[in-house]
Amino acid sequence: MRLFSGLFSADMAIDLGTANTLVYIRGKGIVLNEPSVVAYHVKDGVKTVLAVGEDAKLMLGRTPGSIEAIRPMREGVIADFDVAEEMIKHFIRKVHRRTSLSKPKIIVCVPHGATPVEKRAIRQSVLSAGARRAGLIAEPIAAAIGAGMPITDPTGNMVVDIGGGTTEVAVLSLGDIVYARSVRVGGDRMDEGIISYLRRQHNLLIGEATAERIKTSIGTARMPDDGRGQALMIRGRDLLNGVPKETEITQAQVAEALAEPVQQICEAVMIALEATPPDLAADIVDRGVMLTGGGALLGDLDLALREQTGLAITVADEPLRCVAIGTGKALEFENQLRHVIDYDS
Ligand SMILES: Nc1ncnc2c1ncn2[C@@H]1O[C@H](COP(=O)(O)OP(=O)(O)OP(=O)(O)O)[C@@H](O)[C@H]1O
Ligand SMILES: [Mg+2]
Which residues have CB atoms below 5 A from the ion given as ligand 2? Predict the structure, then answer.
């Protein structure tokens, strides 16, 4: 068997995220985890791919005129079709054995709120990237499976997936979605919040990469108890005289900068609770809420959500990998989970 295994296709599950793309191979687990970024070299109007993933992300915001670094996914769906396809192809090629005789079957997760047109675009780009068959799975279901929630039980389970582009709040029972709501608030909005706060309050211009670094190192959803918290030295451009400037930013300031997106996430959870049938809502009060996605790592977000909703909040074990693990499990246990995968055929 072993001798021949390389000849057969490796079926895959892909979490095509706004911020990160992960690829899971059946029987192997996650084999690739890279930023969803493509960098092009542009000469005389002709574009050639320069870098994809990690290397391309390093170029974001730092490119000369001849290089363009693009994030093809926005708010969970494809914003730039050609670039997305290029990226998917690149990642598949990177993990797929060239010796394989047959094309792989690929399952991709899509936001619950994706329109039929957006779903078709994702399916198409996976097929033209070399898939034999393309199945779609709703991201909240994948997130819940990946977080180990008992989604096939007849009880209400609430999962909140906070990604780069969107936050999806879903209530699941008996293996399907009872209620789901997608709000276009996630890590990107948090970064923008930090950028505009520094511009307004400090006349300091910083780029997206710096904003993300501030968020992941000292970001917090809640005012620190001492009213200040930790501090971080940051560099940017002084908007008054145009020269580089260094300044200190505290956790209290970051909490203020993030207040709006955090509030919107809390509200989405409250609205979901109100719309959930009473018996399922009672289950959620009993069992609490599971947070997944990179945004779940924001400091004290669980506390802020608990204070505002009164619910017990759990952050999943590996929030950045949950959706990919869940999509992978759907592939591994396809017979039991067939109804959650949409093959459109
Ligand atoms: N420690 C951290 N604190 C706060 N945010 C974080 C942390 N680590 C990562 N993030 C953020 O998580 C986001 C990426 O999360 P994730 O990979 O789940 O998103 P995605 O799946 O690509 O996006 P989407 O699901 O919206 O398409 C980024 O915005 C990143 O800055
Ligand atoms: Mg995601």
Answer: 17, 163, 323
Residue 166 near ligand 1, beta carbon < 6 Å: yes
The average pLDDT across 201-213 equals: 96
Tens digit of each residue's pLDDT (9 = 90 or more) over 91-114: 998 997 665 667 899 999 998 888
| Sign of the CA dihedral with 212 first, then 216, 218, and 222 last | positive
247 Cβ neighbours under 8 A, 6+ residues apart: 202, 204, 233, 234, 236
Quote the CA–CA distance of 70 and 15 in Å, as a whole number.
18
Q: CA-CA-CA-CA torsion for 178, 165, 193, 53, nearest 10 degrees?
A: 150
Instruction: Tell whether 237 is covered by a domain.
Output: yes
Looking at the structure, tell me whether residues 207 and 303 fall in a common domain.
Answer: no
What is the pLDDT of the chain when averaged over all its residues? 93
Ligand 1 proximity of 14 Cβ (cutoff 6 Å):
no
Res 2 pLDDT > 80 = no
Q: Is the CB of 76 under 6 A from ligand 1?
A: yes
Count Cβ atoms below 10 Å from residue 154 Cβ, excluding itself: 11
Degrees, nearest 5: CA angle 112-116-265: 25
Distance 15 CA to ligand 1 centre (A): 12
Residue 90 lies in a domain: yes
Domain that holds residue 217: 187-258
- Asked if residue 118 is part of any domain, the answer here is yes
